[in-house]
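Hi V.,

You were right to ask for the full record rather than a summary. Here it is.
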Amino acid sequence: MTPDKQPSLRSRSRRKIPVAPLHDFPPGTRMEVKVGSVQIAVFNVGGDFYALYGRCPHQSAPLSRGRLQGTVICNAETCWKTEWAHDGEVLVCPGHGMEYHIRSGKAFGYNLRLRTYEVVVEDGQVKLVM
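Predicted structure:
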């Protein structure tokens, strides 16, 4: 196949992997799902679903067991004053306390980003889109 004839990533069909029935996954809960050899942590935060690579890159601690909280920020946007931010959106690694923004997978204070996955709800089922 010539390069101009190869299907784009968007045109390829993506798999939808069932996680749980919606009624078994209320706000404030989380689940760990294994897809092949990959652990994925899925969270229901106030009715919004987020999925991240499920192991901390530092020492492989299971992120599905981490707590969700906010964090203190101090930057030009806050006029260099400390502020509490991202309440309920900061995933803290249960191993050594590294913090990740659950929406983006970005680590706070490090040039590191966890892979994130799309989550959809279809026909009363929570599904990962891979």
